[in-house]
Structure formats: C-alpha cells, structure tokens
Automatic annotation (TrEMBL):
InterPro entries: Integrase_cat-core, Integrase_H2C2, Retrovirus_Pol_polyprotein, RNaseH-like_sf, RNaseH_sf. It comes from Oncorhynchus mykiss (Rainbow trout). It holds the Pfam family rve. GO terms for molecular function: nucleic acid binding. GO terms for biological process: DNA integration. Residues 85-244 form the Integrase catalytic domain. This is Gypsy retrotransposon integrase-like protein 1. Gene3D superfamilies: 1.10.340.70, Ribonuclease H-like superfamily/Ribonuclease H (3.30.420.10).
Length: 363
C-alpha cells in the first residue's frame, strides 16, 4: 500500500524510520519494554505503515533485554518422558536422602530406597550423610542381601552418586546408573514421593516427641508398605510378596501352607497385575501431564539460546533484579536423552533441560 492508504489521523512511517519508531515505543525509558500488545498500542496512537503488526512482533521477539529479564508465561516445554516400567520387584530401585531431622538416638538422616515396581520402600536411619563407599555398604547390608542385585539405580546428583567409586560399584554389580537432571527432582519422583509419605507418617507418630522419630521409623515403614499404591491399586507388600501381612495378629486365621508351585504362580499373577496397572497409570499420567505442557522446541548444534538463571549460582547484588536469562550461548552438543549440552563461560558444564532455556530470536 502507498502512503495514501494511511489513516488521516496517523503519520506514515517510511522504511528507514521504522526501527527508530519501534525503539521509541518499546525500548525507551518511558516505554519500559512492554510486550507486543503494549508496544503496538503505543505505535497505533500516532503511526502507521503496512507491516506495522508484523514488524512489531519480530522486534519484540528479538529484544535481548526482554529475553534476559522476562519470565515466560507459556506452559512448560517438553513432553513427559517417564522411566521404563520394570517387570519384577526390586530390579529397578531409586535412592534419596531425607535430611534436616532432629537428632534421634544419634541419627539425623534417612536413606530412602524405593522399589520402582512394587513401590515398596526401606527407610534406613543414619548418623550423617554417608560417602559413596559408605552408601554402597549400607544398601548391600539392608537391601541387596534381602532382595538381590538391581539392574538400574536412580538417584539425584548428590556427591555420593556422581563419584567415580559409585559408577564403578554399579558397573561391577551389573546395574546402570540413572542420574536425575540437574534442578529437576521429578526425575527421581518415586523416592521424593516416598520421602513425603514417610515424613507425613513420622510427624503423626512422633509429634509429641520429635526426637523419637528413629524409634517410630520401623512402624512408619510398615505402614508405608501396607498402604495401597495409587499406581497399582495394591500395597507394596502385595506387589512384592504376593500377599498382605496382617495389621493385627488375629486378622487372619491359620491355614495350610500352600505348595511352592502355587506360591510362585500367585506371585506371577500378582506381578502381571501390577505391571498392567503400572502401564495404565503411566499412560494416564502422561496424558494428564502433557495437557499442561507444550512440545519441546527443536534445537540444533550451534544454535544460540538464552539460559535461565533460576538455578545458577550467580553472584549478584540483588537476586530480585537479576536477569531471568543470560547469554546467548551456543549449543555445543545434542544428547538424545537430554535436550542439549551447554558450556556457558565461567559456569559449570551441565546438562540443561528444555525448560531452562529459550531460543534466541533474530530481528
């Protein structure tokens, strides 16, 4: 359209002047870096040109100040990708620590060990956070000797689990190491959920004397393993052992001892039922979670992205006024399991998830 198409009450902006108008409406101190709607509102009051809306959107999207200082309002990026479902009890376990507890009989820490198949858990009281070698010895004595060796171990990125000793220990027992993503505890969600459950039970059992929690811990573990799981519909005892131990001594009358073959068949039926329930539950969870998520943006090696400062150890005068994003940084490597690998100068070399970055737009 020619300048003659411009409304009479507005000024036509020629091509060489449009950038200056956009900067005035968006980047000036009086403008305050508004979004597309606010920038367009200011421009529409005085100016017109044929591609006004399109140019404004591109300009705001490419603003480096907005990219670094504004939080996104869009749903979390990336579809839910749950861990594979085990086929038997105690083949896949998850580990985590509960800290910040009052001293109880010299104990201040709980090591949580969860069977990802049956949701059964052991809660082991400890005097302090153990080293990698001490952790290995603890789970040998309290888990492996009872349930056998696992094929996969999920944990967070604590120093015990990122050490060379731990990796070599797991390699020697034939277990793969699955570390949760940095600042993403949902990756180890089953241990986190067990920690919440045991915390709730312990608060109820020891609220009159919090220092007695270590005495109540065995009963809390029994209660946890007796409660039906929302994923399987069965208690961890039923899923792992094939039967539900009584809560009271007279709950069940004595019966004849079943044959070994009948016992094994009952366990196999229970495990098939548990696995089917886990498959259904995972499908429901994925559908529900993905309704609140968007597809992960597609990145390529060498692409420049802004990195979220939410979990970065930045030294700043005021955390509230710290830019929300820094960069842009180039993606140095694409890893199948994780969205990207960044090497920000002066920052730790870490794996960063889709939700921790946003693509850099160019004007």
């Amino acid at each position: 359209p020619s300048p003659h198409a411009c409304p009479r009450n507005l000024l036509f902006v020629p091509v060489p002047t449009r950038l200056a108008v956009l900067q005035w409406a968006h980047s000036a101190k009086l403008a305050g870096h508004p979004g597309v709607r606010g920038t367009l509102a200011s421009i529409r009051q005085r100016f017109w040109w044929p591609t006004r809306e399109h140019d404004t959107r591109r300009f705001v999207a490419a603003c480096s100040v907005c990219a670094q200082t504004k939080s996104g309002n869009s749903p979390p990026a990336g579809r839910l990708r749950p861990l594979p479902i085990p086929s038997r009890p105690w083949s896949h376990i998850a580990l985590d620590f509960v800290t910040g507890l009052p001293s109880s009989a010299g104990k201040t820490v709980i090591l949580t060990v969860v069977d990802r198949f049956s949701k059964a858990a052991h809660f082991i009281p400890l005097a302090k956070l153990p080293s990698a070698k001490e952790t290995a010895q603890i789970i040998i004595e309290n888990v492996f000797r009872i349930h056998g060796l696992p094929s996969d171990v999920v944990s967070d990125r604590g120093p015990q689990f990122t050490s060379q000793f731990w990796r070599e220990f797991c390699r020697l027992i034939g277990a793969s190491v699955s570390l949760s993503s940095g600042f993403h505890p949902q990756s180890n969600g089953q241990a986190e959920r067990a920690n919440q459950t045991i915390g709730r039970i312990l608060r109820s059992l020891s609220f009159r004397n919090p220092a007695s929690w270590s005495e109540q811990l065995p009963w809390a573990e029994y209660a946890h393993n007796s409660l039906p799981s929302s994923a399987t519909g069965l208690s961890p005892f039923q899923s792992s052992l094939g039967y539900q131990p009584p809560l009271f001594s007279s709950q069940f009358a004595e019966s004849s001892i079943p044959s070994a073959q009948a016992f094994v068949q009952r366990c196999e039926r229970t495990w098939k039922r548990v696995r089917s329930a886990l498959c259904r539950y995972r499908a429901q969870t994925v559908r529900a979670a993905n309704k609140r998520r968007t597809k992960s943006p597609r990145y390529c090696r060498g692409q420049r992205v802004w990195l979220s400062t939410q979990n970065l150890p930045l030294k700043t005068a005021s955390r509230k006024l710290t830019p929300r994003f820094i960069g842009p940084f180039r993606i140095s490597q694409i890893i199948t399991r994780y969205p990207r690998y960044l090497r920000p100068p002066g920052l730790p070399c870490l794996l960063y998830q889709a939700r921790s970055s946003r693509p850099r737009s160019s004007s």
